[in-house]
Amino acid sequence: MATLLAASTALTGCGPRVPVGPPTVPVHGKVVFTKGGDVAKLHDTQGVIEFESLDQPGIKAYGTIEQDGSFILGTKFEGGSKAGAVAGKHRVRLNLDETAQSLVAPQFLHFERSKLTVTVPSAEEIVIRVWR
């Protein structure tokens, strides 16, 4: 009986729960200004980059913009979150507070107007080019 109980426990697991959610792949990148801006100021105002899946509507990944412009994405879903983003095509926007919104051209604040798209996974670091 004890052996059966031990085997049952091993199969069901007692360790940490792995969030279910969609499968994701690691995504890292960098926000850079092509003219007239300072990416460190986006970090100072807690700027976030946001990817929205075009292949799986409603799934978004977020990453804090660091002082050097770098970011690492994580996907939030009902019941949890996971590192990375879902595979496929994404549109991109910057999610900035009121203070930081004046630091970039207004189109980069909206998925519909930013015209920024990326495909995940990418063989290279994803570079998001913005301007003021």
Q: What is the top-level CATH class?
A: Mainly Beta
Mean pLDDT across the residues is 87
H and E order = HEHEEEEEEHHEE
From the helix content, strand content and strand pairing, which structural class follows? alpha+beta
Strand portion, in percent? 35-45%
In short, what is this structure?
19% of the residues lie in helices and 36% in strands. It is an alpha+beta fold.
Describe the fold and architecture.
There is one protein chain. It is built from four helices and nine strands, in the order αβαββββββααββ. It has 132 residues and is α+β, with helices and mostly antiparallel strands. It has a single domain, classed as Carboxypeptidase-like, regulatory domain (Immunoglobulin-like, Sandwich). The strands form two sheets. Strands 6-5-3-2-7-8 form a six-stranded antiparallel sheet. A three-stranded mixed sheet has the order 4-1-9, with no helix packed on it. β2 and β3 form a beta hairpin. The longest helix is centred in the first third of the chain and has 11 residues. The radius of gyration is 19 Å and the shape is globular. The protein starts with a helix and ends with a strand.
